[in-house]
Amino acid sequence: MYGSQTPGTPGRNGANPYQTQAVETSSPQALVTMLYDRILTGILRAQNAEPEGDLETIHRELVRTQDILMELTITLDRERGGQIASNLASLYQWCRDEAIKANISKDLSSLDDIAFVIEELRDAWEAATSRLTSAAG
What we know:
This protein is mainly α. The protein is 77% helix and 0% strand.
């Protein structure tokens, strides 16, 4: 109906069908890890675009990073998450603010700090979900 498409190539909306399937079939826990990884990918792409002066890529990747951080913030369950959810919201907001500043000024020096925070969160998240999976199984 939408025409033929080679597996693994972007579709009409630019999404890779394998990535789309991975997202649609992943657990909520795995989705959070994917979002953290996508933030780190975006930061790396922005940093790699800086020497070439590729402002379009820098802007696109930092806006995507900001969007992911906003999504992570609004999906926090603050009732059940209590202080942990509140602390995560503060960290996400700080990272988002820094990404906005970097995008406006095109000074990417703070991106390493954002990456450090996200890597720490991703590692802690993976450890926690691994323990939960082990305890449940």
